[in-house]
From TrEMBL:
This is Inositol-3-phosphate synthase. It comes from Phocaeicola salanitronis (strain DSM 18170 / JCM 13657 / CCUG 60908 / BL78). The keyword Nucleus does not apply. Keywords: Isomerase, Membrane, Transmembrane, Transmembrane helix. Belongs to the myo-inositol 1-phosphate synthase family. Its EC number is 5.5.1.4. Coiled coil: none annotated. Gene3D superfamilies: Dihydrodipicolinate Reductase, domain 2 (3.30.360.10), NAD(P)-binding Rossmann-like Domain (3.40.50.720). GO terms for molecular function: inositol-3-phosphate synthase activity. GO terms for biological process: inositol biosynthetic process; phospholipid biosynthetic process.
Length: 435
């Protein structure tokens, strides 16, 4: 197979995080600590995973960077926007995810990451009170101001490339409105007319990133890049987009566990998932309009793995419920419970209980790193638009619903897509099929 023309990863890679909260600061601190040899990037596919390339006598297992040119951690420069003015060191301490002993060795570097003023609208996250916010007359002004931030950051830090990662709070649910979100021209018009109901601040970040030649990744469940207008923008600027919602705790388990039920042709009558968490994310999600965005994203996982139309005897009318409860004492240490009601031979019922005592940001940080590095790779490989191979990292993978495309939620099918994309970009055959 002919090798794809992947540009080398030369120069610095600017990683601009929207939001400088628990996830972003855990990600940044970890990368800086790893760079100093003081921590290990556990959970990161780009740093640990090996992919088989070639067959038979030619067979080899290689790290991603041995197959394709990946940016190195030493070349990353971090920046951020946030509603609150705390720098990355202060924020990391406040979030209480990491112990001070794991933050202090990179204190100097973290203190230099001072958030730029946020493009923010309180109607989109009522529980946030910060005042480190841009004063913009219209959504279009927000875009212009963000574009300037990106250009200034790139120049000031001598970056050759930028990736923008949304690690900010979940906004209220913005349903897709064909009239505004259907085409790029309509979206731009709405931004200029300051249509605040249909244009979320996150859309301004995404638009600004793409306009400045930077891939955009949506780590929250916001529908920001799930609209045809943004796909058009990504095609026009030939930039990759990925989303949405980091697949970290409960949904990771769900997308890995549901295939056990499906593969053994067991039946499902119900799946009840509940969580408690007490960080700022939990606080924002305590607001019903913000929770709804998360709920839609979390509920979509099972539907494409256990499909009633394919197996009516096994999966018709199963009851699927997801709850998140704000419970401050647990902070970032989320606890998730899954109760799964299955049935077997002759319809006899059984139950499975899963209790995951996880750490939200510890699970999210390696995903941030992988999504950033792989989006940068995709851009250098000339891949643009929706990056389906990144579905592995995301709870509610992007798909073209206007063409009735069904997203792939099955963790192991997603892993095949990831491996095949790396193989293809490295000039090897994509040799595992999803059937
Ligand atoms: N940690 C996980 O396991 C996980 C999994 C999936 C998705 N997520 C999502 O990742 C996001 C970040 O989570 P977190 O735990 O770091 O939350 P957090 O509340 O600690 O941090 C989010 C930060 O974003 C800032 N912010 C909000 N709106 C902004 C805007 N318009 N511009 C700039 N900054 C803005 C807030 O001030 C806050 O500091 C959330 O949307 C969460 O739902 C997290």
């Amino acid at each position: 197979m002919e090798k794809m023309n992947v540009q080398p990863a030369t120069g610095k890679l600017g990683v601009l995080c929207v939001g400088l909260g628990a996830v972003a600061t855990t990600f940044m601190t970890g990368v800086l600590m790893v760079r100093k040899g003081l921590a290990k990037p556990v959970g990161s596919m780009t740093q640990y995973d090996k992919i088989r390339v070639g067959r038979g006598a030619e067979k080899k297992y290689l790290h991603y960077h041995e197959i394709v040119p990946m940016a190195e951690l030493k070349d990353i420069v971090f920046g951020a926007w946030d509603v609150y003015p705390a720098n990355a060191y202060e924020s990391a301490i406040n979030c209480e995810v990491l112990k001070e002993k794991d933050i202090n060795p990179v204190k100097d570097e973290l203190e230099k990451i001072v958030p730029m003023k946020a493009a923010f609208d309180r109607d989109y996250a009522k529980r946030l009170e910060g005042d480190n916010v841009k004063d913009c007359a219209t959504r279009w002004d927000m875009v212009e101001a963000l574009r300037k931030d990106i250009r200034d950051f790139k120049e000031a830090n001598g970056c050759s490339r930028i990736v923008v990662l949304w690690a900010a709070s979940t906004e209220i649910y913005v349903p897709v409105c064909e009239e505004v979100h259907g085409t790029l021209a309509a979206l731009e018009q709405a931004m200029k007319e300051d249509d605040r109901r249909h244009v979320a601040p996150s859309m301004c970040y995404a638009y600004a990133a793409l306009a400045e030649g930077a891939p955009f990744i949506m780590g929250a469940p916001n529908t920001t890049v799930d609209i045809p207008a943004m796909w058009e923008m990504a095609e026009k600027t030939r930039m990759p987009i990925a989303g949405k919602d980091f697949k970290t705790g409960q949904t990771l388990v769900k997308s890995g566990f549901a295939p056990i039920i499906g593969t053994r042709c067991l039946g499902l009558s119900g799946w009840f998932s509940t969580n408690i968490l007490g960080n700022r994310d939990g606080l924002v999600l305590d607001e019903p309009a913000n929770f709804h965005t998360k709920e839609v994203s979390k509920l979509s996982t099972l539907e494409s793995i256990l499909v009633p139309e394919n197996q009516p005897d096994l999966y018709t009318d199963y009851y699927h419920k997801v709850r998140i409860n704000y419970y401050p004492p647990r902070n970032d240490n989320k606890e998730g419970w899954d109760n799964i009601d299955i049935f077997g031979w002759m319809g006899y019922p059984m139950q499975i209980k899963i209790n995951f005592l996880c750490r939200d940001s510890i699970l999210a940080a390696p995903l941030c790193l992988d999504l950033v590095l792989l989006s940068d790779l995709a851009a250098r490989a000339g891949r643009y638009g929706i990056q389906r191979f990144l579905s592995f990292f995301l709870k509610s993978p992007m798909h073209d619903y206007t063409q009735d495309e069904v997203p792939v939620n099955h963790l192991f099918q997603q892993y095949v897509m990831l491996k095949n994309a790396i193989r293809e970009m490295g000039g090897y055959e994509a040799d595992e099929e999803i059937d």
